[in-house]
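Annotated sample (chain length 691).
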Amino acid sequence: MVRLSMGSLGAQSSGKIINMMTNDVQTVDHLGLDAHFLWIGTLETIVVLVILWSHVGFTILLAMIYTLMVISVQILCGKVMQIIWTKRVQQTDLRIKLMNEIVKSIHLVKMYVWERPFQLKVERVRRKETFYVILKSLMNTVKIVNGYSFSLIFFLIVFGLLWYRRAPFNTDFFTIAFVLISYLRHTYLHGFATSCVNISQYWVAVQRIQEFLNAGEFNQQKMIVIENEFNSENKLTVDIQNLSSTWESSSFQLRNVTFSARTGELIIVIGSIASGKSSLLMTLLGEMKMIGGAVKLNRNARFCYVPQESWIFSDSIKENILFGMEFNEKKFNESIYAAGYANFQYGDSTLVGDNGIILSGGQKARLSLARALYRDEDIYLLDDPLSAVDVQVARHIFEKCILGRLRSKMCILVTHQIQFLKYATTILFLDKGNQLASGTYSQLHQMCPEFKQWTQTNTNNPRLDSSSASDTATSNMMVGSKYTRKVQYLKIFGKQFLLEIYLIVQHFHQLRTLTIGSSYNSHAIPPQSTQPIVLHLPHLKRLNVTGINEIFHLVEAAPNLDYLKIDLNSLNMALDDRGTCELLQKRIVHLEVTNIQEIDSIPLDIIAQKFNNLRDIFLWVEKSTVFIDSLILAVLSMWKDKSLRSFYIKGSLTDDVSKNLSQWLMNHSHLDSEDLFLVEYDSKWITVWSQ
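Output written by the structure step:
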């Protein structure tokens, strides 16, 4: 990312970069596991069909056609979900970008009372994001239903045809077919289908990452000629002839710019707004694409660029100026003095906050200028640093910094202040990307009427100190009383509080269900250290079978418990994530009712992270789908066993299992005398019949 050119970086939104570095990269991580299920599922299908073919012959053809239909539907679902996921991540990028802009500009938002309009704007983006997430969940439901019904329909096709042909029933083939089809069902449900979905998301993520990695990087352009030697006076030179350049993402062009400069000269670039002044500096830095002309530089020339928007990190003033360089007290003091930096209560140890939140626009500009002076480079490119400060500070900076510290450097200054033009060695006058004239102040005043008109227009331009305006605005921003904010908090977080209470009560209710046996009959069985779990399976009568058949029936009953476990866990996760879904709405409203003093006490990056960490704010839709699926499966699996319950018995069963269970049954006389019980003891399951 640090190697991207300014044009390429400008084409990438901050929300897209954040989303790509968090969600997309995590999606790519799962490729190594998901990709193997594709060839494993295909190979298993071929092997199973060959084995079944060897037993039933042409009867398996219709089942093979159905299998191909299942695979086609799964692949189609994957492709559709890929398209949906592409649309969804675009909305996520837009939401994250919008929230970052709101958080970074929260002072302006509150000063102009723009909270509600921006909240509505975020909600519109979220509604579109919700739409695509719901579509993805519907396709996921089709995939799950297709996988769960595979074994049943496959079984009906094979044995239905055998019954239609009046073929003899073979128990050996039935057992083999049951096991093989169960394997296929598991493969298509948990392997192949999931892989199709994840790989579709993987391709979307890879395309986004590849697009970002293929973006244009900064490089020394071919039209910039590097000369090895200094000129005859042993000075650095810059020679520009008929320079033309353009932005890749814009139609604006800089055309036919010609000038030369040497060490110790001051080049001032002037012109109206959007005339190409900053574009000229970007071209010299190699950030703007050159389409004509040539630029000659010395090999040892080093640039130092001061942009209009200062880049400041959350640390002290001293660390922002040093910017990783070793501390030199003399040079440091000279730099901050030349930049006109004001004294703070804690001096250069003052913390500037996130993005320099405590600094005004003028103070940020002076900090960037002091940082540039401390680096002591050869060529300085100053992009209008005087516009952010008042007249007195601007004069101090021009005299002490530009004419003082930089008198032995080559300096190219962009400015609108005409009072300093007479000090320039050369003035470049630009208009709409064209160079209208160049020369000294007196030469332009005599030869260029456009320059004379421009100077008259910009004479006596009133200026304000941005620091005082910012401080006044900040001091006047108070939103609501304490009572109003408390009422707002109750309205915002009331549902979340009730949801948490419900989950806590449900959790203790489950514990009570597990201990219901001990609560009813603790007087009959003395509590001991070993506490087995008894699962009561009513209406499952004792069968006169032993060995593998009994195990088969127990395994047949076990999925009921798994479905119930999935059912309850999915419900809890769905409710939890439904609350998570509302967090963004609540956090936006919370940001709306919070005053500036409270916001300033928290770094803006942390505030933005609270919104960006909601990676999938509508994940509850998908988990609710799993809850519905598992609920249906649990109801179908317990069609005969409508009163499945679980009890927890205190007391050791090692001495006399029959006695303890008999005593327990006496306290529960409503149970059937021939019910089956599964008893967990010492991490092992044993079967006990009540009779």
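Annotation: The chain has a mean pLDDT of 68.
Annotation: The domain at 6-213 is CATH 1.20.1560.10 (ABC transporter transmembrane region fold).
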